[in-house]
TrEMBL record:
The protein, known as: Epithelial membrane protein 1
Keywords: Glycoprotein, Membrane, Transmembrane, Transmembrane helix
Cellular component per GO, a single term: plasma membrane
Record bears the keyword Glycosyltransferase: no
Species for this entry: Semnornis frantzii
InterPro entries: EMP_1, PMP-22/EMP/MP20-like, PMP22/EMP/MP20/Claudin, PMP22_EMP_MP20
Transmembrane regions listed in the UniProt entry: 7-29, 68-90, 97-118, 138-158
């Protein structure tokens, strides 16, 4: 049981770190042009220098929603990690990890919403460039989506042990 809890704790910390990286770094979409590689994130459009991400007025609300849900996912993941530590040492067997599992599933839902909005609205943002594709931040966000769901379910299952 202790090894299982330690493993979940390590995966949870890795998820928090990957959420930070995927939200902060500007490599959600990558493309090529005559001036070099261009990357686009949630905050900036980077070529040789980084500038504010140019979005149309109709897409601005979607971009803000994506940013907000990614930030919320980080907040909920950190809160769930703190709650895990608190509940591990304060609650008795059978009552542990309800709150932690629920908060982690809320984090999972925030990631799902953010990445879905980005996929629906911004994957075609670099059509003018050669070979546009998703960058590592987009992939990290999907990995965090999977990890947060698995961790949330494991916390709910571990409440009985």
């Amino acid at each position: 049981m202790l090894v299982l809890l330690a493993g979940i704790f390590v995966v949870h910390i890795a998820t928090v770190i990957m959420l930070f990286v995927s939200t902060i770094a500007n490599v959600w979409m990558v493309g090529s042009s005559t001036t070099g590689t261009i990357s686009s994130g949630l905050w900036l459009l980077c070529n040789r220098t980084c500038n504010t991400l140019p979005v149309s007025s109709s897409d601005e609300a979607s971009l803000r929603a994506t940013q907000a849900f990614m930030i919320l996912s980080i907040i909920f993941s950190v809160i769930a990690l703190a709650m895990f530590i608190v509940q591990l040492f304060t609650l008795e067997k059978g009552k542990r990890f309800y709150i932690t599992g629920a908060i982690m599933l809320v984090c999972w839902m925030c990631i799902l919403i953010a990445v879905s909005i980005y996929t629906a609205r911004f994957t075609g943002i670099m059509r003018d460039f050669e070979r546009p594709h998703h960058g590592y931040c987009f992939i990290l966000a999907w990995i965090c989506f999977c990890f947060s769901f698995i961790i949330g379910i494991l916390y709910l299952v571990l409440r009985k042990k």
